[in-house]
Amino acid sequence: MTEARGSTGQRDGLGAVRRTPGTPTWVSLMAHGLATTQEFYGALFGWEFQPGPEQLGPYVRALLDGHEVAGIGQLPPDHHLPIAWTPYMASDDVDATAEAVRHCCGTIGVGPLDAGPAGRMAIAVDPAGAVFGIWQAAEHLGSALVGEPGAPAWNELVTHETAGVVKFYQAVFGYTEEAVVSADFDYVTLQVEGRPVASVHGMGQALPRDRGAHWMTYFEVADVDESVDRVVELGGHVVKPARAGTHGRVATVADPEGAVFTLVRSES
Which helix (DSSP H) or strand (DSSP E) does residue 67 occupy? Predict the structure, then answer.
């Protein structure tokens, strides 16, 4: 599940790598209570936090052992958007990628805009309604750790069916695909330069109506069951109990504001 960490590119002094376009490079959460959200994830994953970039308003970067792994921002009080983790795909030219999104029947909800010296970004929506980010790195290359306990491990698009939406992402980011051949499992792996970097799961009528199409971020943990108990202790709740998954033991949970994510203990 953590193959994306093998992406080649330029590394910075903190271990982050300038990822090939189309590779997930960052995950970010916009919440109403910035301080309480930091407390939750700090206690769950052992994160510490640094502020900035200031161009994004109240925003902090989560650090794991001194390495940046994720971002958390604060929604304005009058914004009632779904609270959700959002993956950002790497781009060499966010303006051109945004134009490709529009050309392929997606929409741009935010940007493109500069995030100071860190880089340039946009928030997009695919034709099925799933939200994702686009990141053109400058000083900030993205997550410096991937697949380590407390760090992002994988991103999966959960949607109605894969066929149409995969064509959208292929046109925008140039992915190749590898389908899982199964009569009852609509699942595709997106690849960059021959490496799996994300997946698309078509759920048909089983797609949750209250969420619709969405990207799911997986965070690696040392012990899924213990982490699930910790989520509940900290005020979150269980969406899908711990179970055996395709790539290891997984559980889907939500933080106190309702942001859903998956805990995974990847098979070595």
Answer: strand 67-74
Q: Are 162 and 200 a contacting pair, CB within 8 Å?
A: yes
Q: Give the strand pairing for 67-74 and 24-31.
A: parallel
For the chain, where are the alpha helices, taking DSSP H only? Answer: 34-45, 94-103, 162-173, 224-233
Are 151 and 47 contacting, i.e. CB atoms less than 8 angstroms apart?
Answer: no
What is the per-residue pLDDT across 96-124, written as a single tens digit (0 to 9) for each?
999 999 999 999 999 999 998 999 999 99
CATH of 3-137, one of 3.10.180.10, 3.10.450.10, 3.40.1410.10, 3.40.50.300: 3.10.180.10
Rounded distance, CA 48 to CA 60, Å? Answer: 10
Q: What's the token pair of residue 247?
A: 């790539």
**pTM exceeds 0.90, yes or no:** yes
- pLDDT confidence of 136, banded at 50, 70, 90? very high
- Tokens 């301080």, located at residue: 35
Contact 217, 87 (CB under 8 A): yes
